[in-house]
Design goal:
alpha+beta; D-amino Acid Aminotransferase, Chain A, domain 1; OB fold (Dihydrolipoamide Acetyltransferase, E2P); five-stranded mixed β-sheet; 20 helices; binds adenosine monophosphate
Length: 554
């Protein structure tokens, strides 16, 4: 049994390491050390996750709830706790400081030490609390956990509670650490992750069953796979030269859905792989009437169409995805339609290693035409041009050019799916900071500091600020959203936990010493707040470099 104290010590140690190789080997050693039945939990904890992303279990602890728990246990007012957060720039150290300043420390656990499992079980309990009175019960459970913890443990329990461990261990490090610990190729670990979306499960399988066990991991109905992604197309001619014949589909302006059907049960997952079935009864209904299969996994795009059958703004669709109440009324206002374009599993058989043309045949067998995306296979560039124009005329984004012989590669942004859009110059960037406005806008955060991802270090590299394209209504909504994410404030400058992705259009990328990515955006303009994307989906520095190089060649 591993104590939580050991976990906290490891975290502290890792926090002080800057090189990713050293970090990987420390994490690998820890993975080897913990008991088999703790490995799943530890693998997630070390990335700041308590449950797999797709799990029904959600902690539901925001900063305010955590502050209340710390306030109760330390008998300090919430304002003081907020003060500590500003001062230390970190919820973990703020909690430690607040609790250390209170006199009492009680240990409720018989063995005297909190184990990793104790902490996990308490989090499970917290996640199970819903409905009336649940907020208070969650606070009490957190209070109980924090009261039983030693000062260093408090730091990491508090950070885990808000699922933000801040020790720099991201997906890349964990993948390599599992590989190193159990002597398995990183590609096999990655494949397992793309299929299961849970490094905890992958680590456990790697340890217990080795490569053979990992190779056996497959597609399972009810466990979402990472979605296959697209690269930017150079052009129609280039795509035809590369692929020969091309499967052309409209690139619908909507939101991605992955649909799992098992008998009468239907689960709809969003692009972030969250279960959104409850919010989308109209999609569920179309699936129920339009799909004939016992067990199946489908991939598609949901679009909101107005009375002229033109796509509504992306923000409208997102209103549907986040809805918890008034669902039927909102569904009437913003009706969603399905365009299914792929099938990943059918009646007991995984289809991801089957060429697209064959998957398409199966798809046509099980799906009614009314919910299918049209597809044309051709090598005729003017025919593709015509489809592209039709898609744009209909108000959609452009076309997808797919390789008809390609497999479905979960989570990969490869050459087999290319997207062709008229405005290619947008980036999805993490928002890491901001500035309070001036004059009339003094109570709003008016400009936002943007960053791309560095996949090697899992850090964010700044690339520019955006203040244009934000409506007054959005300004107040964004201020509300980002106020919750402030971790440091000095004068007008604020630093945010990187949680939100902005899709930003711009005229040009320039080299610049002003931002630590080495690049800056010329005339950036906010296009969309991509609440459907997680921070891991933010574009990487490589993507920025590619766009920069391409733009120079134009
Ligand atoms: P992007 O978000 O710009 O990288 O473009 C890829 C996204 O386009 C996918 O994640 C889907 O949500 C969306 N999309 C729309 N139509 C299609 C289609 N026919 N095939 C694949 N993806 C599509």
């Amino acid at each position: 049994m591993t104590s939580f104290e050991e976990f906290a010590n490891e975290c502290k140690n890792i926090e002080g390491i800057s090189g990713s190789l050293e970090m990987t080997s420390v994490v690998a050693e820890f993975f080897k050390k913990v008991d088999d039945d703790e490995l799943e939990i530890v693998t997630r904890f070390i990335m700041g996750k308590v449950f797999p992303v797709w799990s029904e279990q959600q902690l539901g602890i925001g900063p305010n709830l955590l502050y209340s728990a710390i306030s109760r246990i330390s008998s300090l007012p919430v304002k003081r706790i907020e003060g500590f957060v500003k001062e230390t720039g970190d919820i973990g150290h703020a909690a430690e400081k607040a609790i250390a300043s209170s006199k009492r420390h009680v240990n409720f656990f018989s063995e005297g030490k909190l184990s990793i499992r104790d902490v996990y079980q308490r989090f499970q309990k917290i996640a199970s609390l819903t409905g009336k009175g649940s907020q208070d019960a969650k606070i009490k459970n957190l209070q109980y956990l924090l009261a039983a913890a030693e000062p260093l443990e408090v730091v990491y329990i508090a950070r885990l509670a808000v699922e933000e461990l801040r020790i720099g261990v991201g997906e890349g490090i964990v993948r390599n650490a599992i590989s190193l610990a159990f002597n398995i190729s990183p590609d096999l670990i990655e494949r397992g992750y793309m299929l299961t979306n849970d490094f905890g499960h992958v680590a456990h399988t790697a340890k217990k069953e080795g490569s053979i066990g990992l190779e056996k991991l497959g597609v399972v109905v009810g466990r979402p796979l990472k979605m296959m992604l697209a690269q930017v197309a150079e052009g129609i001619q280039e795509a035809v030269e590369e692929m020969g014949r091309v499967a052309v589909e409209w690139k619908f302006d909507g939101a991605r859905v992955q649909i799992h059907i098992d008998g009468s049960s239907i689960i709809i997952y969003s692009r972030k792989l969250e279960n959104v079935t409850f919010s989308l009864p109209d999609i569920e209904k179309s699936v129920r009437s339009g799909v004939k299969a016992n067990t199946v996994i489908l991939d598609g795009e949901s679009v909101a169409l107005d009375s002229d059958k033109r796509p509504m703004a992306f923000q409208e669709i997102l209103k549907r995805f986040r809805r918890k109440y008034d669902i039927s009324a909102t569904a009437l206002e913003i009706p969603l339609y399905l365009n299914i374009f792929d099938i990943l599993y059918l009646n007991g058989e995984s289809l991801i290693d089957m060429p697209l043309v064959q998957r398409r045949k199966k798809l046509e067998e099980v799906c009614d035409k009314s919910i299918l995306a049209n597809q044309t296979i051709t090598d005729n560039t003017s025919e593709i041009e015509t489809i592209y124009k039709e898609a744009l005329d209909a108000g959609h984004e452009g076309v997808m050019l797919k390789n008809p012989g390609s497999f479905y590669t979960p989570g990969k942004r490869g050459k087999n799916w290319l997207k062709l859009k008229p405005v290619m110059d947008t980036l999805d960037l993490a928002v890491i900071g901001g500035e309070w406005g001036e004059g009339r806008r003094a109570s709003f955060i008016g400009s936002y500091l943007l960053a791309c991802r560095d996949p090697d270090s899992d850090k964010f590299l700044s690339i520019g600020r955006v203040a244009t394209g934000i409506t007054d209504e959005q300004l107040s909504e964004l201020t509300k959203l980002f106020k919750e994410l402030i971790i440091l404030e000095s004068g007008v400058h604020v630093e945010f936990e990187p949680k939100v992705v902005f899709e930003v259009a711009f005229e040009e990328i320039q080299k610049s010493p002003n931002y630590n990515s080495g690049y800056a955006l010329r005339f950036p303009r906010l296009v969309n707040v991509r609440t459907d994307k997680s921070i891991e989906d933010a574009d990487s520095i490589e993507k920025v470099e590619q766009l920069y190089i391409r733009q120079k060649g134009r």
